Amino acid sequence: KQWYQRRVRGRYFMDISGHMFMLVFCNLFLESHATTEEEGGVFEGTVRGVTKVMVSLFELMMVCTVIYWHSPAEKILGTLTGVAGYTLIFKKFHSFIRLNET
Asked: What is the number of other CB atoms lying within 10 angstroms of the CB of residue 27?
């Protein structure tokens, strides 16, 4: 048994941390949309404030995940998968769609 493996029903396996994947992916998504929105009235300010609260909550949840759940390798793999997924979907694929719209 390695330090990054868990034993379930007699078998050893390693899984990515779905917690870290979703929290990193959602944080990147919220941060990118919160920083690109135009300044506006009360509604936009409220949405920006709610977004900041959600990002802070997700960051607290990431800290709890790092402390209490998953092995270090699973957390790193989950984080890298979240960053890769965000980059692939919102940076590469999104710009490809914009090029084909014209």
From this structure: 20
